[in-house]
Amino acid sequence: MTTVVLFLAAGVFFALAWLLSTAEAAFLALSRQAAEELTEHPRRKLLPKILAKPTQHTYAIRFWRVWTESLAGIALACAFFFVFAHPLVAAGLAALVTAVLSILVVGFASRQYGQRHAAKTVLYTAWIVRFLTWLLGPASSWLVAMATPKGARPGATFLTEEHFRDMLERASETQQIDDAEAELIHSVFELDDTLVRSLMVPRTDMVTISADSSAEDAIRLFMRSGCSRVPVIGEDSDDVRGVVHLKDVIGNLYSDELNATNVLEVARRARFVPDSKHVNELLQEFQRESTHFAIVVDEYGGTAGLITLEDLLEELVGEIDDEYDSDTPDYTQREDGSYEVDAGFQIEHLGELFDRELRDEDVDTVAGLMGKLIGKVPIVGSVAEIDGLRMEVRTLEGRRNRPGKIIVTELDPPVDNEAEDDGESESNAGATTMQRYERLRGDQSGEDGTRADGADAGSTDRRVSDRDTLSEEDGSAGNAQRASMRRESEQD
Predict the structure, then answer these.
(1) Could you tell me which of 350, 356, 355, 354 has the C-alpha nearest to residue 368?
(2) How far from the centroid of its chain's Cα atoms is residue 355's Cα?
(3) How far apart are CA 182 and CA 62, in angstroms?
(4) Distance, CA of 363 to CA of 211 (rounded, Å)
(5) Could you tell me if 274 and 196 are in contact, meaning their C-beta atoms sit under 8 angstroms apart?
(6) Using CA atoms, how far apart are residues 60 and 383, in angstroms rounded to an integer?
(7) What residues contact residue 244 under an 8 Å CB cut-off, 6+ apart?
(8) What's the Cα-to-Cα distance from 480 to each of 137, 431, 488, rounded to whole Å?
(9) What angle do CA 321, 173, 116 make, to 5 degrees?
(10) In this prediction, what percent of the chain has a pLDDT beyond 70?
(11) What is the pLDDT of residues 243-293, one digit of tens each?
(12) pLDDT of residue 240
């Protein structure tokens, strides 16, 4: 009878441990939005109190879960002792059964159920969690204080970015999240490390308009370029005086109140940002100031380029094209497997084409990388190699003869001839110099005997060269052999 009671007690304790583990998993998996929706449920009375102090209640659940698992193990040990009357056997069986049930039932099955049915589990276990936390009293607060490092926020999760990236990779591999979602999250992390100069439109590709241009000139420029905002410049691109918007120009043409004689009168104030600014900071500024356009300046105050809100969003979600964007890609795969890319193609994107990581702190484009590698401005035929890739300039563009198209080819891995060299060394190790020379002559005699005199002379030169090389290996011991070989060569 006692044995049966102990087994039943162990089962009850394991059931309580399963329930507490399920509740813990449900509270941890419950999202903020789901928690707000549950506060409107009829069973919501205890839920706000739990959500107000989630860390304290979570530690209370864990304490009682460990306590019930321990009691279950003790009950099993006592029950097995009554059955086998041997303390070591009873302890071993109790430890084995407790470990298996703790892993499979309490550890795995309960957490899976709690995560899948978080909302329902939270509603039906709220009173149990609240009661156990009250039963533990101030000890629950002590547990939180002991488990929290000094200076840290209670309940903070100490998860580094690297750990989160690893978790994201595993979730993507197991198809728990889509690849597109994983890529989006990775892009968010990379915003902290991405600088404005890596996303900006370079100065050489900027579309600008002179400050004394008329509204009609601006309309024609908007139509040709497809841009809706254009910088207004004075003497050169370093003298940016404002930004003109297509809506402002059209409004000036069809408004009775506005009669601007040039685009500068309807231009808006230009926003300037340094090229070393981080993208995430600029995105927050654009959002806060309702701005979509900024001029990028370098460390010397000159215009380095421009950047738009669309450029920042494309870094997160990929290319955003509309019906006016060109369908011409900035890279093309050739028949031999190589790629023809634009000179301004990003080196990170080039690495993605060849499944490797290419990064450089000084340059961002393929043309810039080539210039850094060869130490001068690339011209047609310039070649550079890096990380198994061969880059060659194919065309030049513009009045300044800037690189236009670049051919990028993946180099073949070097052939490992060590095994062949080792085999030849072993076969030649046991042969004398004369035997190697006779073997060389035999190989040469098997060739076509009707060669021209020049070919025969070349063969004789090669034999003499080989003879000298071989004789030098044997030192003074090969003097007689060298004399014999010389006589044979003269006879030939």
Answers:
(1) 350
(2) 11
(3) 31
(4) 32
(5) yes
(6) 67
(7) 209, 218, 229, 230, 231, 232, 263, 264, 266, 267, 268
(8) 105, 17, 13
(9) 100
(10) 71
(11) 999 988 888 877 665 566 788 888 999 999 999 999 989 999 998 988 899
(12) 93
Question: What gap in Å lies between CA 309 and CA 200, rounded to an integer?
Answer: 10
- Cα–Cα–Cα angle for 223, 227, 228, rounded to 5 degrees: 100
As its CATH architecture, domain 196-317 has: Roll (3.10)
Distance CA 410, CA 408 (A): 7
Structure token pair of residue 374: 């060869």
Q: Is the pTM of this model over 0.70?
A: no
Number of other CB atoms surrounding residue 67 within 10 Å: 16
CATH 2.30.30.30 assigned to 331-410:
no
Give the full edge-to-edge strand order of the sheet including 339-342: 331-333, 339-342, 405-410, 389-393, 383-386
Which of the 8 DSSP states describes residue 477?
Answer: G
> Cβ-count burial of 193 within 10 angstroms (0-12 exposed, 13-18 middle, 19+ buried)?
exposed
What is the spatial distance between Cα 470 and Cα 464, in angstroms, rounded to a whole number? 10
- Nearest by Cα to 25 from 99, 120, 165, 101: 120
Could you give the CA distance from residue 276 to residue 364 in angstroms, rounded to a whole number?
A: 13
Residue found under tokens 């690495």: 351
| Residue 93: partners with Cβ closer than 8 Å, 6 or more residues away | 76, 80, 84
Residue type (1 letter), 359: R
Mean pLDDT lowest among 10-24, 122-136, 146-160: 146-160
Strands (E), 196-276: 201-202, 209-210, 229-233, 240-245, 272-274
E strand map for 334-388: 339-342, 383-386
In DSSP terms, 201 is beta-bridged to: 306
Residue pLDDT, tens place only, 444-477: 444 444 333 443 434 334 333 343 433 344 444 4
Residue ranges of the domains in the chain?
2-147, 161-193, 196-317, 331-410, 432-443+453-491
What does the alpha-carbon distance between residue 463 and residue 449 come to, in Å, rounded to a whole number? 16
